[in-house]
C-alpha cells in the first residue's frame, strides 16, 4: 500500500465535501426555480454566500470543479426553463468572483464546450459590460456599422437557447392534442427523425419523447407502432420516466444493458441507477472502482461523497485506503484540476509517465485538459526530469486546440489548419524523440 500525505488526503476529503454541499444547494435551486421564485432566490443566496465564504476566486481547484458541475448539469438536463438560473450564477461569478480573470479563455472554452449557449452568454455578457470602455459611436460610424443594428445583434439572448416553435416544443410540453394536430397538418411520419441540439444528432420522435419524459406523446407513438430499437432504450434512461421505462421493459424484446447503468449515472438519474442495480431482471453489479470512475466522470460529487462515507462506515476503510482504490484508475479519473493536482503532487504515487505520453501521442485523453491543468503537468514533468532537457515536446489535442512545448515555450494555436500544418512539419521528428524517451 502506498504512503500518502495525510495533509493532502484531508485536503481532498474537505474539497469533495465542500463540492457536495455546493452541488446540493445548486440542485435545490434547480428544482424550485420554476415553481417559487422567492424560494429560489433564497437558495441562490445560499449558494452565493458559499462562494463568498470559501473565497472561491482564490480557491482555484474548487472554482474549476464547480464550473465543471455547472457545465455538466446544463448538458444533461436538456430543459430550457432553467437557463436563466445558469445565467444568473454565471453573472454572479463574472461580476463578484472574477471568472474571466481567474480562468484563461481557453480553459473556459474547454469547460463549456458542450454548451455553446452558456459560452455565448459568457461572451455576450462580457461584451455588454465592457463595450463602453472600448467602443464608442464615432468609432462604430467610422467602421460604417449601424449602432442600432450592432446593439440588436449583441443583446443578451433570451432564456430559450433554441427555437421553441414546432414539434420539439410540443413534445417537450407533452401536449398530445397539439402533437396530433401537428402530425395531421404537416403530414409528418411517426418515424421521422429530428435533430436534438443538445445531443447533436438525429433521433426519432419516440426517442425525443423519452428524453423529456413526455408520457402522453410516448404512449400515442407506442400504440401507433412507432419504431423502437435497442439504442432507443438509453433515451428512456436519460429522461428517467418510470412509466416509460416499465413499458419498454414489459413490451419490447430488448433488455437494458450495462451501458444504461452508466448513462443513468452520467445523467444524474440516481433513482434509475438504484432501480437498475436492484431489479432482479437486470442483474447488474457495479464494482467499487467503477463506482468511483463513473461518478467522477459524471462530476457527481454528491454521490462520490456518499460512496466515500459508505466505505468509511460499512467497510471500515480509511480515506487513505479509498484514495488507494482510486490510484489504479490514474488518467481515467482526472477530469478536474482538483484531482489532477492531488495525484500529481502525491509523489509517493507512481504515475505511469510512459502511459501518459503514449496517451498524448495517440490522442486518447477523454477529459478536459485545461490550460492550467496542462501547465501544472508540464511543470511537474520538468521538475521530475521526465522529459529530455535539450528538446522537450508535449503535444496535446483538444478538438481545435494544440499546445506545443518546445524548449520551454508554449504556443497556443486556435486555428486548426495552422495546427495541422505545424504538426505535420515536426511530427516525424517528434515521434523519433518520444520513442527514444519512452
Summary tags:
single chain, 438 residues, mainly alpha, 3-stranded antiparallel beta sheet, two-stranded antiparallel ribbon, 24 helices, 5% strand, globular, disordered C terminus
Q: Count of helices?
A: 24
Order of helices and strands: HHHHHHHHHHHEEHHHHHHHHHHHHEEEH
Number of strand segments: 5
Strand order of the largest sheet: 3-4-5
Gist of the model:
With 438 residues, the protein is mainly alpha-helical. Helix content is 62%, strand content 5%.
Could you explain how this protein is built, in words?
This protein has 438 residues and is mainly α. The protein is 62% helix and 5% strand. Among the domains are: 6-153, no CATH class; 352-438, no CATH class. The chain has helices at 6-32, 37-53, 60-77, 83-96, 99-102, 105-112, 116-134, 137-142, 147-153, 167-172, 176-186, 205-211, 215-223, 233-239, 242-251, 258-266, 270-278, 288-297, 301-314, 319-326, 337-345, 353-361, 371-383, 416-437, and strands spanning 193-196, 201-204, 395-398, 401-406, 409-413. The chain has a three-stranded antiparallel sheet with strand order 3-4-5. Strands 1-2 form a two-stranded antiparallel ribbon. Strand 1 and strand 2 form a beta hairpin. The longest helix is centred in the first third of the chain and has 27 residues, at 6-32. The chain starts with 5 loop residues before the first helix and ends with a helix. Residues 130-135, 143-151, 153-164, 347-351, 357-371 and 381-438 have low confidence and may be disordered.
Amino acid at each position: 500500500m502506498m504512503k500518502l500525505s495525510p495533509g493532502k488526503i484531508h485536503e481532498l476529503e474537505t474539497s469533495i465535501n465542500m463540492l457536495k454541499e455546493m452541488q446540493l444547494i445548486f440542485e435545490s435551486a434547480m428544482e424550485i426555480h420554476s415553481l417559487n421564485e422567492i424560494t429560489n432566490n433564497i437558495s441562490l443566496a445560499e449558494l452565493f454566500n458559499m462562494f463568498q465564504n470559501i473565497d472561491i476566486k482564490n480557491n482555484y481547484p474548487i472554482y474549476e470543479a464547480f464550473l465543471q458541475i455547472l457545465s455538466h448539469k446544463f448538458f444533461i438536463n436538456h430543459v430550457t426553463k432553467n437557463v436563466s438560473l445558469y445565467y444568473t450564477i454565471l453573472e454572479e461569478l463574472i461580476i463578484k468572483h472574477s471568472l474571466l480573470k481567474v480562468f484563461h479563455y481557453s480553459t473556459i472554452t474547454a469547460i463549456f464546450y458542450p454548451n455553446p449557449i452558456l459560452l455565448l452568454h459568457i461572451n455576450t455578457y462580457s461584451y455588454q459590460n465592457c463595450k463602453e470602455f472600448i467602443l464608442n459611436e464615432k468609432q462604430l460610424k467610422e467602421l460604417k456599422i449601424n449602432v442600432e443594428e450592432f446593439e440588436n445583434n449583441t443583446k443578451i439572448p433570451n432564456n430559450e437557447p433554441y427555437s421553441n416553435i414546432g414539434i420539439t416544443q410540443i413534445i417537450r410540453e407533452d401536449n398530445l392534442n397539439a402533437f396530433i394536430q401537428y402530425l395531421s397538418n404537416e403530414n409528418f411520419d411517426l418515424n421521422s427523425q429530428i435533430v436534438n441540439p443538445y445531443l447533436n444528432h438525429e433521433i426519432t420522435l419516440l426517442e425525443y419523447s423519452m428524453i423529456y419524459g413526455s408520457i402522453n406523446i410516448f404512449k400515442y407513438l407506442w400504440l401507433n407502432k412507432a419504431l423502437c430499437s435497442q439504442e432507443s432504450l438509453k433515451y428512456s434512461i436519460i429522461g428517467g420516466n418510470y412509466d416509460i421505462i416499465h413499458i419498454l421493459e414489459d413490451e419490447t424484446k430488448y433488455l437494458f444493458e450495462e451501458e444504461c447503468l452508466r448513462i443513468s449515472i452520467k445523467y444524474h438519474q440516481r433513482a434509475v441507477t438504484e432501480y437498475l442495480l436492484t431489479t432482479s431482471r437486470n442483474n447488474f453489479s457495479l464494482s467499487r472502482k467503477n463506482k468511483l470512475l463513473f461518478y467522477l466522470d459524471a462530476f457527481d460529487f454528491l454521490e462520490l461523497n456518499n460512496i466515500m462515507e459508505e466505505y468509511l462506515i460499512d467497510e471500515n476503510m480509511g480515506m487513505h485506503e479509498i484514495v488507494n482504490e482510486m490510484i489504479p484508475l490514474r488518467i481515467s479519473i482526472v477530469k478536474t484540476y482538483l484531482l489532477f493536482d492531488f495525484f500529481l503532487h502525491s509523489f509517493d504515487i507512481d504515475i505511469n509517465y510512459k502511459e501518459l505520453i503514449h496517451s498524448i501521442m495517440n490522442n486518447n485523453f477523454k477529459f478536459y485538459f485545461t490550460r492550467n491543468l496542462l501547465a501544472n503537468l508540464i511543470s511537474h514533468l520538468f521538475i521530475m526530469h521526465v522529459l529530455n532537457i535539450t528538446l522537450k515536446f508535449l503535444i496535446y489535442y483538444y478538438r481545435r486546440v494544440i499546445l506545443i512545448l518546445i524548449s520551454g515555450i508554449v504556443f497556443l494555436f486556435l486555428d486548426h489548419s495552422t495546427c495541422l500544418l505545424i504538426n505535420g512539419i515536426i511530427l516525424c521528428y517528434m515521434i523519433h524523440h518520444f520513442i527514444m524517451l519512452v
